[in-house]
Amino acid sequence: MKKTVAIMAALAAVTLVVSGCAAAEEDTTSTETAATETATMETASSVLDSVKEAGVVKCGTRDALPGFAVLQEDGTHVGFDSDFCRAIAAAVLGDADAVEMVDLETADRFTALQSGAVDVLVRNTTWTASRDGGEAATFLHPNFYDGQGMMVSSDSGYANVSDMNGAVVCVAKGTTTEGNAALESSRLGLDWEVRSFDETDLILEAFLAGQCDGWSSDVSQLTGLRSAYPSGADALLILPEVFSKEPLAPAVLDGDTQWAQIVNWTILATIQAEEFGITSANVDTFASSEDVSIQRFLGLEIASDEGSAVLDPGLGLPADFAYQVVKQVGNYGEIFAAHLTPLGLERGVNSLWTDGGLMYAPPYR
Amino acid sequence: MTWMRRNLFRTVGDSLLTIVFGALALYVLWGLAQFVFVTGRWEIIQVNLKILLVGRFPEELLWLVTGSVMALAFWIAAAATSSLTTKETRPSLGIRIWHAVQRFGLLAATGLLLIALAGDVASVIIGGLILTSIVMGQLVGLLRRKIAALRTISSWIWHLLLAAAPLAMISATLLQASVDLWEGFLINFYIAIISIVLSFPLGVLLALGRRSALPIVRLISTSYIELIRGAPLFVLLLLAGVALEFFVPSTLAPDKIFRAVTVFTLFTAAYIAEIVRGGLQSIPRGQTEAGKALGLSTTKITSLVTLPQALRNVIPAQIGQFISLFKDTTLAGVALNVLDLLNVGTAITKQEDYLGQGLIYEALAFVALLFWVGSYVMSRESQRIEKRLGVGQR
Amino acid sequence: MSSLPSAPPKPPLWRDTRVLRWAFQILVLAIVAGVIYWLYSNYQTNIAKSSIPTDLRFLDNPTSFTIPGNDLNQSQPVRDAFVQGFYNTLRVAIVGILLTTILGTLVGIARLSKNFMVRLVATSYVELIRNIPLLLLLTFMNLAVVLQTFPRIEDAWLPLDLFVVSNRGIAIPWFEGSGAILLAILATALVVTWLVVKIRGRVSDSTGKPARSLVWGGPTFIVLMIGGWVLLGYDWVLPFVDDRATSGGLRLDPSFFALLVTLVVYTSAHVAEIVRGSIQAVAKGQGEAADAIALSGGQKMRLVILPQAFRIAMPALGNQYLNLIKNSSLGATISYFELTQIAQITVGNGSPAVPAFTLTLLVYLMISLVTSVIVNIANRRLALVER
Question: Cβ contacts (< 8 Å) between C29 and chain B: which residues?
Answer without folding.
Answer: 216, 220
